[in-house]
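lol ok so funny story. i was supposed to be doing the assay writeup but got distracted and ended up predicting the structure for this chain instead. priorities right. anyway since i did it might as well share w the group, maybe its usefull for someone
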Amino acid sequence: LEYYLDNFPEDPLILWALAQNYIYLREYDLARVELDRAMTLLPIWYFVFTGGDIHFYQGDLVAAEKEYRKLLEVPEQSAQIVGIERLAAIYTLQGRFDKTVEQFKQAIGLAENIGEVQWITTDLLRLAEIYLETGNPENALEELEKAWEIRKKICRTM
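and the output, tada:
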């Protein structure tokens, strides 16, 4: 990373990577500085969710939710899925499980639209986990069976 910072100090992806490193070190203020620099140079959607993540890790769920909601306005459905999944995480922490279920169902629908099988199965598993947490084992089993059927189809084609 040092090499790239020395030779490409204004590369937004390098600055984003530096911000990620600061996040891992829990140096959130420094992460924000580097992320803001990257956003100034190249305002792309995954920088937005990184900004939301910084707020999330700092415990500011209101600010994190605001950032993640911006992803819902991005034309790329993959960005919308990431935003929805992050919103689901916030709602889970807040104990708003009905909203969590709603978010995962929406993410699954978008993933189906773009044929992202990995996202579909991952979010089905997350949805099943929420159903288990909220005392709905029948619903959990239904989602797990859906995920299993999808994975079996993939394995058959390999």
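The first helix runs from residue 2 to 7. The radius of gyration is 18 Å.
back to the writeup now i swear
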